[in-house]
Amino acid sequence: MTTQVKIKAQVTTVTQVLEWCEIDPKAIIIVEHLNHFLKTEQDRIEFLNEFESRQLWRDPKKSFKMVDLAKQIGSYHYPEKTLDELLEMDVKEALETLFREPINQGKLFRFKEHKANIRSLFAIKQQQPKIKLMGALLYV
């Protein structure tokens, strides 16, 4: 219980989460996922409490498990949408909602390069629910 109070008093930013977890801020993929899923202070506090209770600092696959934990905690920010709802969003927001992953400039470039569209990616995602954007683009 003391840990939770200590964490609550200290954590307000993703940068502070990185420091607490001893992750280099240059770990871009981890930073993108934490920023994407841990949108509120409550999310970040819950993340650190789980990080501590699961003793992830001891795990050799700490960075992978951190990304998975962030997804578990912050997925509620990206509820499932219908195709019509996705089509009304801007492309980046629609892709982030559909695939529940951060979409950076590189992924947007690949999306445009493949001449993909939300409608076709939605169909692929319906057939393969665990597929990520870059994998789905292979089918376009």
UniProtKB/TrEMBL annotation:
This is Uncharacterized protein. The lineage of its organism: Bacteria, Bacillati, Bacillota, Bacilli, Bacillales. It comes from Fontibacillus solani.
